[in-house]
From TrEMBL:
Domain of life from the UniProt record: Bacteria
Annotated protein name in UniProt: MmpS family membrane protein
Species of the source: Myroides indicus
Length: 123
């Protein structure tokens, strides 16, 4: 449990930094639809997911308890997403995070280990 809390703290900090205002405006003024996708290995269990928009609003999904998850998000200026979880058998696993726009993966990151923490941003 302590490892999960440390990973959550890290994810929260990373999302807070990535959501801060910058001069970059990757999404422009128009609202776009993004797909956020997390794919884990067979032994992965996603506990919590945070999806943040460039305007500072966010959605938190707790007790996900799945190895894979996805949703569509509409946002102006891009999005960030992070997931934290663990492996169910104490053997190393993988968790991949993706942001997809118009059917193309625009950002991706992967976490490996027994505690999984994947974050991705396009802001």
């Amino acid at each position: 449990m302590k490892k999960i809390l440390v990973a959550l703290l890290f994810t929260s900090t990373l999302l807070g930094v990535s959501c801060s205002k910058s001069d970059d405006n990757n999404g422009g003024d128009s609202e776009k639809t993004y797909t956020v996708k997390f794919t884990g290995s067979e032994n992965a269990n996603i506990e919590m997911i945070i999806v943040a928009k460039a305007d500072g609003s966010n959605e938190t999904y707790s007790d996900v308890n799945k190895s894979s998850w996805e949703t569509q998000v509409k946002s102006k200026g891009g999005i960030s997403a992070g997931a934290v979880g663990f492996t169910t058998d104490d053997k190393p696993g993988k968790l991949k995070a993706e942001i997809i726009e118009n059917g193309k993966v625009v950002k991706t990151s992967t976490s490996e280990g027994t505690v999984l923490n994947a974050t991705v941003t396009n802001m």
